[in-house]
Each structure stands twice: as C-alpha cells, then as structure tokens.
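just leaving the lab so this will be short. what follows is a protein written twice so to speak, once as letters and once as structure tokens for the fold. can you read through it and tell me how you think this chain folds. thanks a lot i owe you, the record is right below.

___
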Amino acid sequence: MMIKLALTGSIGMGKSATAALFAARGVPVYDADTAVHKAYGPGGEAVAPLEWSFPGVIGKDGGVDRAKLREKVSRSPDLMKKLESIVHPIVAGAQRAFLEKAEADGVDIVVLDIPLLFETGGDKRADVIAVVTAPEDVQRRRVLARGGMTEAEFEAILARQTPDSVKRRRADFVINTGFGFPYAEAQVDAILEALRSRIRAANGTTGSCAKSSSIQKPQASIPSRATVS
C-alpha cells in the first residue's frame, strides 16, 4: 500500500520548506514547481509550445523567461487558461513517472508538492491532503521580503488561488508554519506516524488499535497553537 499525500498551500505559507522536512525524513517528494522549471528550461518540453502561443517569451538562454510570460498572462484569465492547458499535461506526465518509480521501489508514502492542487483538480488524485498555512500578516511579510514582487502582483496571485480558509476546510491535515519550523517539524512527524498507522491497519498488523489511525478534518480557523488536525 502506498499513500499519496498531496501537500499544498498558498504563496508565502512555507510549503517548500515543509516539503523539505518530509524529504529529510526519507519520504520521496514530487515537486511540481521543479517539473515546471525543467519544462521551461533550455530544451524543455514546454519551450516551443509556449513561444508559439506567447511570442517573445524566450530568454537569452533559450528557455522561457518566466517574468515575460507572467507579464503576458497575469491580467487575462483566458490567457492563463491557455498557459495551463499547455503546461499541466507536461507536469502530469512527470508526476506519473515519479509515482511509477516510487511504487516499483516499494515506497509506503510519497508527497506530491503541488501549489495549485485544488485549482487544477489534483486533489482528486491524492489519498490525503495536507495544507500548509500561516497567519495573513506572516504570509504577506514573507512574500514581500523576497523582493522581485510588488504588492499588486502579490494580490493578483492570491486572487487566482483558492483561499487559504477553503484549503484548510478541504484538508485532512493542516500544518501551521506561523510558529516557526520546529513546530512544523513536530506536525510533519505526527502526520507520518498517522499515515503509517493507517498502513499498518490496512495490512492487518495493528490488531484492535487499527481504528485509531483514522484521519480527522481540521477546524476551519488557523489553530491557536501548532497542532496536527
């Protein structure tokens, strides 16, 4: 039995750092952003179709210039859908290859790190969902501190993403990074133990305690302290 854990979260919530915590514990992580970067890079699968659809987005290195591409599509929902129709099948193929290898290797849990999980219907292909969250002021401060993005661009990205409150309601687990990553580490460990308890129960190795591995939905609000819901 292999459990596919989808990990998602809005911009600035700490999703990538949380994915690294799973990876540090030996859990294979599929990174959708990395797959996109590879597809956009020189010789990447997405380069030719994107240049055909959005002329002028190729950079000096022969790959897609993401800033140019963002400038072309960010203000047009129709162009954004066109972009997604090109990129999503490419990323889906990379994800299938990752899952096939993990299953062949006998892995018990994999993490699918997918920023636009709900927006692209990726939640339907996962067994359980973990949402990474943080208070709004922490989120905003993190994003703007990176540089390279204006307030208007940040708001535009948020407008295209499923609201954090909705993501939390639809999640099986909520990981709150607002209290720092030592707390997040404890939550990751608790999630892995819960999932492995579920696997042991499915394999009939836990006896009368099997039902204790059931996963409960998190509360809709951000927890007042770092917990796994």
